[in-house]
Every structure is written in structure tokens, then in C-alpha cells.
Sequence to fold (364 residues):
Amino acid sequence: TAAGFIVPFVAYLPTEELGGSGLVAAVVAGIVTGQGAARWFTPEQRMSDRVTWHTVELLLEGGVFLIMGLEMSEIVTGTANGIHGIAHGLWIAGAAFGILLVVRTGYVALLVWGQGRRLHPRRTQRLNAISDRIDEIEAGGPEQYGDRGRHITEAGWNRRLASFRRRISRAMSDLNYYRAAPLGWKHGTIIVWSGMRGVVTLAAAQTLPADAPSRHFLIFVAFAVALTSLMLQGFTLPALVRLLRVSNEDDENLVRSEQQRLAREMHQAALMAADDGSLTRRDGSPFAAEFTERVGPLFLQSGEAEDEEARDILELRLALIRVRRERLIELSGGGQFGSAALRRALAELDASQLNVELRLESAD
Fold:
């Protein structure tokens, strides 16, 4: 939690001093931290971060609207007594709201159209052709490039081939995902209408200097846009979904299928680790081969074993959880699974690890 609060400022302040965009730096730092959470943070830290940031988000959003409510009387009075007036402010707010919808519609339409083009059979054929070409290059070795190939080490050669294969695999995984969950005009319509303006718009308006010209008028326009968006789009969105007859059943089936595939991948990784004897306790000491052969398969099949309070069995469970998490981290970078399935799998592993660690503490 402390790292989550500190990292944005560590990225923001030096970047601003160097003349860059501190906001962009903070966003990038947040993305990097979020991507590395499964690798760098403990289960306790991840669960604490989720609860903490949900609370902070609730407090900040509520605080912005509370401040706006307290200032509303002064803002309306200042706008009414200003040179523009309330009617002019409402007209500008309506125009801004319409422009936002038009721009968002155009952007989403391009996204839907672009996804449709990605699903063209020629793209799959091209990726397969590239994959076959990589196989040919690998079979020929660096020697096929003459003098240039002689300067390439075997490690460098394998690293380049692996990098190309990862790119092709990621592209193929993206295509498979788009085929399983395609976006149509109905989905695009919902995306456009669900893009409501709210706390960010109001927070940005609040950053205007106190002596800025027409400050009350500008904040009034921002508030009118946010209020119109939240009230109009928020109250009509459920009706729009029902009207378009869009169901989330396909998405739920896709996530469920991905969770099952993830479970199989992690289960297979745990089986391999149990077979090759690479499992260790938390202190690094290995398990006895006889113990792993006897207890490991029982645990992997049912998730339970006799006398599960025994310390070695709990240690074995922790070791298997570590193996599964490592496999999950590997799979998360390949594009084969959606974020919902990955988050669910990580949360289940975290819950299992916390459960086992609490039992180990009570056994000490």
C-alpha cells in the first residue's frame, strides 16, 4: 500500500522538474507497478492494495462531488452575475456534450471497424506464413547468412527466434480472442453511451486558478456537462442494453472457458514440478522424493490430503502454489487469456496461499 502511494509521486516530481509531463509519468508508473504486482508483491500486499484503492477511489469521487455541491451556490450566483449568464452556459454545455458523443462515436466506430479487419482470413494466413518462415530460418541456423551469421552467437540466435515466436504467438492469441468475443455495432453503441463524464471532468475544472477569467462560468459548464451525462446516460443505459438485447452470457462463457484452461495449465506446471523434484520449502530445503511421490498426486487430484495439518503437507501446498503462480505470470504476457480470467486465477492463488500460511503460523 505504501508503495502504491509513493510510486506516483516518485515518478511525477522528477519528471516535472525535468520539464516532462508528470501526469504521464505517474500513469506509466502505475501501469508498470500494476503489471508487476503478481511478481513483486505478496498476497497480503495485493489484497490490501485492492481494498485501500477502492476506498480511496470512493472517498475521492465522493469528495469531489461534495465540494462541488458546497460550491454550487457560489458558482451559480457567479455565473448568473457574469457576462455570459446561465442560459449561455447551459447552451455551451449541451454543445460540448454533443461534440463529446460525436467524437466518441467516431473513435469507437474506428475501433469496431479495425477489429473486423483484423479478423480477415488473410491476416491469419500471413501469420502462419511468418511462423513457417521462422521454422525454416531456425532449421538453417545462422550459417545461412554467411559472414553476418558468423558473428551471431548461439544464445543471441535463440533469443531472437524466441522473440519473434512470442510476437507471432501474441498476434495469434489476439485473433483468437477477437473471434471468441467479437465487437459489433450493438457493443459499440453501448460503449459510446456508457462513456459518461463525471469526477475527472469536475476535478479538472477545480484545478483552474482562483483568479482565472470566467472561472465560475467554466466550472458551471463542466458541472452541467457532468450532470447531464450522468443523469441522461446513467439512467437510460440499462434500457438501451435491454433494447439492443445484448447479453453477457457469451462473455461469461468465455471467461469460464479461459479459467478452465488456466487451471489446466497451472495444474500441468505443478505436476511437472512435482515429478522433477524442483519443489522446495520456504527455507529452500527440498522435500523428500518419497514424500513428494506419495502426497503430491493426492493433493493435485483433490486439493486435500490426509492429515493436512502436517507441516510438510502445508509446505508442499505452498510450493505448488508458487509453481502455479509462476506459470500464471508466464501466461499473462502471452495474450492467450483475458484479464478477467487472469485476475480471478491470481485472486484464488492468493486466497489459497494466505489460508496455508495462516495454518503454518498456527502450527508453529
In short: Residues 302-309 have pLDDT under 50 and may be disordered. The first helix runs from residue 2 to 17. The chain is about 80% helix and 0% strand. Residues 120-181 form one domain.
